[in-house]
Design goal:
α2 crosses α3. The chain has five helices and twelve strands. The strands form three sheets. Strands 1, 2, 3, 4, 5 and 6 form a six-stranded mixed beta sheet that branches. It is an alpha+beta fold. A hairpin with a 5-residue loop joins β11 and β12. The termini are far apart. The chain has one domain: GHMP Kinase, N-terminal domain (Ribosomal Protein S5, domain 2). The model has no long low-confidence stretch (mean pLDDT 93).
């Protein structure tokens, strides 16, 4: 994978000092976002998101399993990420690497902390049987900002998810005809910024990520409140920069949410 050269880093920083970016966007502009739902026929829910040339596919599967001991009356959420080798020269086959684990953790946190799913409605037999929601994220093309693309695709896939009609009688579980929608109550949107020199840019492209000092992702739930923050990289952010990012994240989340949640 070709990394940006020192000259390219200087060009990126120089453009940003003038309020411009290497792909012609302004500092506060996202690339084009396209959301497709119901793209995997055999999954309970699915979605594909294009963020510029970054492409992410998410499938949702639901199985009956055991609850966690500390939440005996709540369903279980689990998020997994696969960085498909075709998506980038530096993605390799094999067990999940650190980047995949971090991406899964950030997506999971946004869903969990905003309580997207009414997990108490996924309980079949308290302490014994609940529904487990598996969210599988597949990165198909990496051109920067995998976090936002994956988080949008995960939310869209959950909104598209149908659950079998389970009936419990005398602690026996039966599957009846028909389906129900997965009980959804929140719509979090992750907004990621890269800091390059002293400038913040939203939705960093791949070359900007390679040139950045640090990165921060702020996830905003439907009421406009922050439900998760994740920082990566060794660089520092000032209090003013974090406040600035939070304000812009709220604005951008409102815009992006309209692409997923059709009123």
């Amino acid at each position: 994978m070709s990394m940006v050269t020192r000259i390219q880093q200087q060009q990126i920083a120089q453009l940003m000092s003038k309020g411009k970016r290497i792909d012609g966007r302004g500092l506060e502009d996202y690339r084009d976002i396209k959301v497709e739902m119901g793209v995997i026929e055999k999954a309970e829910g699915s979605a594909r998101v294009f963020l510029g040339r970054t492409e992410v596919l998410v499938g949702v599967k639901i199985e009956v399993g055991r609850p966690f001991p500390d939440t005996p009356d709540a369903g279980v959420l689990t998020v997994n990420v696969e960085l498909v080798p075709l998506a980038s020269p530096r993605f390799e086959p094999g067990p999940p690497k650190e980047e995949a684990i971090e991406l899964a953790r950030v997506v999971d946190r946004g869903i969990r902390e905003s309580k997207v799913i009414k997990t108490e409605e996924l309980c079949l037999i308290k302490g014994k049987k609940v529904l487990i929601v598996f969210v599988d994220v597949y990165v198909l093309n990496h051109d920067g900002n995998l976090i936002d693309a994956s988080a949008i695709a995960a939310l869209a896939a959950l909104m598209n998810t149908k659950v079998a009609n389970y009936e419990v009688s005398e602690e026996e579980i039966q599957v009846k005809p028909g389906y129900n929608q997965l009980p959804i109550q929140n719509y979090p949107i992750a907004v990621t910024f890269a800091k390059i020199n002293d400038k913040l840019v939203v939705d960093p492209g791949l070359k900007e990520e390679q040139a950045m000092d640090t990165r921060i992702t702020i996830t905003i739930e439907k009421e406009g409140k922050i439900c998760a923050i994740q920082k990566a990289g060794g660089g520092l952010l000032t209090t003013d920069q974090i406040v600035e990012a939070a304000k812009l994240a709220k604005k951008k989340a409102t815009e992006i949410r309209k692409l997923v949640v059709k009123e």
